[in-house]
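Quick one:
INPUT:
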C-alpha cells in the first residue's frame, strides 16, 4: 500500500490520519484543504488511500463499503505511524469522511490506546455498528444542515457512542461542503477539536 502524503510541521505534537470516503482519494481537494489548515496549526497529517485504484474502480462498489477492510488498512497504517521514528512520538487522531468515518470509528475501537480523537466530515458513522459502543476517543461529528439523510444517521450513531461526542451542524451546507465558507468551518472545527483533545490533553499529562 502506498505510504501516502506525510507532512510533519516543526514541533508537531500530534498527527491526523485521513480516512477518505467512497470514491475519493488522498488527492481530494476537500481533505487536502483541511490537512493544510491543520498543518498551519502545527499538526502533522497523513493522507493515504485505503483502497488500491483497482479496488476503488470496482463497479459493484463492494470494496468501498467494506468497512471491515477499510478499518483493517487504517489500523495497519496506524501501526506504521506508531512505529516510525519520525512520527512515533506524536499522538494519533483520525479525520474520516463518508465511509472513511465508519472505518475510523472501527479502527479506534480496536486501537483504543493509540487513538486520541476523531473528527467525521459528512460521515457515515452508523456503518461502524457495534463498534460505536467501544470507541473511547472523543468524537466530533460534522454534518451539513442540508444533508438531511446523513444528519439523521449521525444523530442515530451519536446516541450509541459511549465516548465523549459532539454533533455540529453547519447551516446551509450540503454533503460535500461546497458552499462558500462551509469547508473553512469544517477545518476550523476540526482544528479546535484536535487542539482540545490532543494537544491540551498531552499538556495535562506532561504537566
Amino acid at each position: 500500500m502506498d505510504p501516502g502524503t506525510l507532512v510533519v510541521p516543526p514541533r508537531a505534537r500530534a498527527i491526523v490520519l485521513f480516512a477518505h470516503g467512497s470514491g475519493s482519494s488522498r488527492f481530494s481537494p476537500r481533505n487536502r484543504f483541511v490537512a493544510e489548515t491543520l498543518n498551519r496549526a502545527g499538526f502533522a497529517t497523513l493522507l493515504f488511500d485505503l483502497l488500491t485504484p483497482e479496488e476503488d474502480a470496482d463497479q459493484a462498489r463492494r470494496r468501498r463499503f467494506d468497512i471491515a477492510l477499510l478499518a483493517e488498512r487504517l489500523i495497519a497504517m496506524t501501526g506504521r505511524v506508531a512505529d516510525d521514528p519520525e512520527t512515533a512520538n506524536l499522538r494519533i487522531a483520525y479525520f474520516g469522511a463518508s465511509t472513511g468515518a465508519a472505518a475510523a470509528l472501527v479502527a479506534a475501537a480496536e486501537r483504543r490506546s493509540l487513538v486520541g480523537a476523531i473528527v467525521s466530515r459528512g460521515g457515515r458513522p452508523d456503518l461502524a455498528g457495534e463498534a460505536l459502543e467501544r470507541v473511547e476517543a472523543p468524537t466530533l461529528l460534522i454534518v451539513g444542515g442540508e444533508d438531511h439523510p446523513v444528519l439523521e444517521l449521525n444523530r442515530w450513531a451519536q446516541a450509541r457512542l459511549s465516548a465523549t461526542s459532539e454533533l455540529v451542524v453547519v447551516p446551509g451546507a450540503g454533503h460535500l461542503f461546497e458552499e462558500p465558507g462551509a469547508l473553512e468551518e469544517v477545518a476550523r472545527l476540526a482544528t479546535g477539536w484536535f487542539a482540545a483533545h490532543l494537544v491540551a490533553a498531552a499538556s495535562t499529562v506532561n504537566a
